[in-house]
Automatic annotation (TrEMBL):
Keyword set includes Lipoprotein: no
Classification lineage: Bacteria, Pseudomonadati, Bacteroidota, Sphingobacteriia, Sphingobacteriales
Residue ranges constituting the HTH araC/xylS-type domain according to the UniProt record: 227-323
Name by which UniProt lists this protein: Helix-turn-helix transcriptional regulator
Gene3D superfamilies listed in its UniProt record: Homeodomain-like
Provenance organism: Pseudopedobacter beijingensis
Origin superkingdom: Bacteria
Length: 323
């Protein structure tokens, strides 16, 4: 199973990757990282694969808008998540181009594809999971017309998207993606964890894709600001979460921030901030090398008593009960 990437302008082979077949008995977790330093720009891509599952995530920073040709000789179902940036793909066996804007996701069946990709010069980040068709079909429901149609397309061997329009990545999806990227388990425990998370992520995708796309009333620039604020909170969870400060920092106002964040992520700014803080604190405590006071300080609490009260309110257990 092989993937080739070419610089279209100079017909230069940028990357050649060989993988074990998705259906092979690859029970151990294999990992590799690819870094590209090319005249078109720089890229980082981390891959994790085991029996029937191939996880990939990374980022690309380009000097200019770039067209890259590609060809692959394998059959796969791809769960695609565009975290940042935009890209378009033109396939020889697709009637229309496939485009992803920031914060969108979809599922695609691909069978020996060939075509070209147009990458935005601003760069982008992507997370994708490729599944063997046999693995994917185990979890594809049979009670919905869109899923039955997709199953027939797969059986025919014709590449296609599950939905003609992409859906917005939900906050729950982001949380699972973050768990997968940050997983530090080893051996069979890592495989069990990753496989469970992939199935959970697929569940959320299928639930969302079976429904019509809900139209947001937010302007495009406000949507981008809400996602930027969400990322900022995630990366700085120990800092105070004040609406007025966040609104000013990202060029919006408190009303738009409250309404937009709740509309896109289904929760308030404070609830989101508190939840990710508590989840991170729990992970640190379960790791076992930090005490309650140390975790409290890392999460930005002024004293461990306040932290313990908040933790118990969130999980129903005190921090000392899970250490």
């Amino acid at each position: 199973m092989t993937l080739h990437l070419y610089d279209k302008d100079i017909n230069d082979l940028i990357l050649e990757k060989k993988y074990p077949l998705p259906a092979s008995e690859q029970r151990n977790v294999m990992e590799c990282t690819t870094s590209i330093d090319h005249n078109i720009g720089n890229a980082y891509y981390k891959e994790i694969y085991f029996m029937g599952v191939h996880i990939g995530y990374g980022n690309l920073a380009l000097n200019n808008k770039t067209i890259v040709s590609f060809e692959s000789d394998f059959e796969t179902v791809e769960m695609h998540f565009a975290l940042k940036g935009s890209n378009s793909t033109y396939f020889t066996n697709f009637s229309e181009e496939i485009s992803f804007k920031p914060f969108q996701h979809n599922i695609m069946y691909a069978n020996s594809l060939k075509g070209k990709m147009v990458w935005d010069c601003k760069g982008f980040e992507v997370f994708e999971v490729n599944l063997s068709p046999s693995f994917f079909k185990k979890y594809l429901p049979e009670d919905t017309s869109i899923f039955n149609s997709f199953r027939k397309i797969m059986d025919s061997g014709c590449s296609s998207m599950m939905k003609s329009q992409n859906h917005q990545i939900s906050n729950e999806m982001y949380a699972i993606i973050r768990d997968i990227i940050q997983c530090n388990r080893d051996g069979i425990y890592k495989r069990m964890f990753l496989e469970a998370k992939v199935i959970e992520l697929l569940l959320l995708q299928l639930e969302q894709l079976k429904d019509p796309i809900s139209q947001t009333k937010l302007k495009k620039q406000d949507v981008e600001k809400m996602y930027a604020i969400r990322d900022h909170i995630t990366q700085n969870m120990a800092e105070p979460c004040l609406l007025i400060d966040l609104a000013h920092q990202f060029g919006t106002n408190e009303f738009t921030l409250k309404r937009g964040f709740k509309e896109l992520f289904g929760t308030t700014v404070f609830s989101f901030w508190n939840d990710i803080k508590m989840q991170e604190a729990k992970k640190l405590l379960l790791r076992g090398d930090l005490n309650v006071s140390e975790v409290s300080n890392m999460m930005g609490f002024k004293n461990s008593r306040h932290f313990s009260t908040s933790f118990k309110k969130h999980f129903g257990q005190s921090p000392s009960q899970i250490c």
